[in-house]
């Protein structure tokens, strides 16, 4: 990067937007000017970036004049409505929503996995779903050892995946239950404190919910491998931040645990946490605020000939969202 960029953050007041600002600062992204955009309800709100107070502006179709890179994290409907205005104004859009992920003309990028695809963009680059990102950072080094034929993955997804409102509801319900009161659902469809439930996206005709199907189709697109079979089960758990995933893979050839560990140890974006003697493995509380995906429980899958099993944790707000978007901007 040889010049500073004029950057806009759309959805700046949301949980991911706040993390985007902090990530831009921590990674010394070359920001020339910063424009913070949100709904009319947030217009005028002061936010701080590197000690400077910047007032949030209302998002409109005219918000992108002079902007080089626009980081969107305001939901799919906002992205569909406003992304083209940003592109028409000359900006490159890095979109964190599901709006463009499966558009064949839009690259879907995990920088540790398929950075070369960024060259194919036509003004919009999509950030994958958080669960997909965390999984693929962990299994790409193993895929490079031997192609993966099948993935069975169960996710344990935190409240942060639903944004600030989801996190607030978990905190409020937890306090209520500890005070002897019931956990009354308002944002989520079920009680969340001291409970878990199937991910609250719509169930499709094949029995999978939308979150699970994102993992299926996004994995194939990012890995450029339509033959990968993916069977996901996505569950909300009462954890405030960071997603966990139990992953089992079946490969073309047998990859030993030692070979897998060596590949993961040198892989970008991966930190091995796999102490069998201390029974210490990835935990959400240890991945909070971390850029790396924590990988552990690395072991042979006893149910098939060429299988491995592992357990991973990743900060949904960072690697699952804000950090991945900023890394894409760095690639630009």
UniProtKB/TrEMBL annotation:
GO terms for molecular function: aspartate-semialdehyde dehydrogenase activity; NAD binding; NADP binding; protein dimerization activity. It comes from the Bacteria. Pfam families: Semialdhyde_dh, Semialdhyde_dhC. SMART domains: Semialdhyde_dh. It catalyses: L-aspartate 4-semialdehyde + phosphate + NADP(+) = 4-phospho-L-aspartate + NADPH + H(+). Phosphate binds at residue 101. Belongs to the aspartate-semialdehyde dehydrogenase family. This is Aspartate-semialdehyde dehydrogenase.
């Amino acid at each position: 990067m040889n010049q500073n960029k004029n950057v806009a953050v759309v959805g700046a007041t949301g949980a991911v937007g706040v993390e985007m600002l902090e990530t831009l600062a921590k990674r010394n992204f070359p920001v020339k000017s910063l424009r913070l955009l949100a709904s009319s309800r947030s217009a005028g709100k002061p936010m701080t970036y590197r000690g400077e107070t910047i007032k949030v502006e209302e998002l409109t179709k005219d918000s992108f004049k002079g902007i080089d890179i626009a980081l969107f994290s305001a939901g799919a409907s906002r992205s569909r409505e406003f992304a083209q205005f940003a592109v028409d104004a000359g900006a490159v859009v890095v979109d964190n929503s599901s709006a463009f992920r499966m558009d064949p003309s839009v690259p879907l990028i995990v920088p540790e996995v398929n950075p070369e695809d960024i060259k194919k963009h036509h003004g919009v680059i999509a950030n994958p779903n958080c669960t997909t990102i965390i999984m693929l950072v962990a299994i790409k080094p193993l895929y490079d050892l031997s192609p993966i034929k099948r993935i069975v993955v169960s996710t344990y997804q935190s409240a942060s995946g639903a944004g600030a409102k989801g996190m607030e509801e978990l905190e409020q319900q937890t306090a209520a239950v500890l005070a002897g009161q019931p956990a009354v659902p308002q944002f989520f469809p079920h009680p969340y404190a001291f409970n878990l439930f199937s991910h609250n996206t719509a169930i499709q005709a094949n029995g999978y919910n939308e979150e699970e199907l994102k993992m299926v189709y996004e994995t194939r697109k990012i890995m450029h491998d339509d033959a990968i079979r993916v069977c996901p089960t996505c569950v909300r758990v009462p954890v405030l931040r960071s997603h966990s995933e139990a992953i089992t893979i079946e490969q073309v050839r047998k990859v030993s645990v030692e070979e897998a560990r060596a590949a993961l140890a040198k892989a970008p974006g991966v930190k091995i946490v796999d102490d069998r003697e201390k029974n210490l493995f990835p935990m959400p509380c240890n991945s909070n605020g971390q850029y790396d995906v924590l990988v552990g429980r690395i072991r042979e899958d006893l149910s098939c000939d060429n299988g491995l099993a592992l357990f991973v944790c990743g900060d949904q707000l960072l690697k699952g969202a804000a950090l991945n978007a900023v890394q894409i901007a760095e690639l630009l």
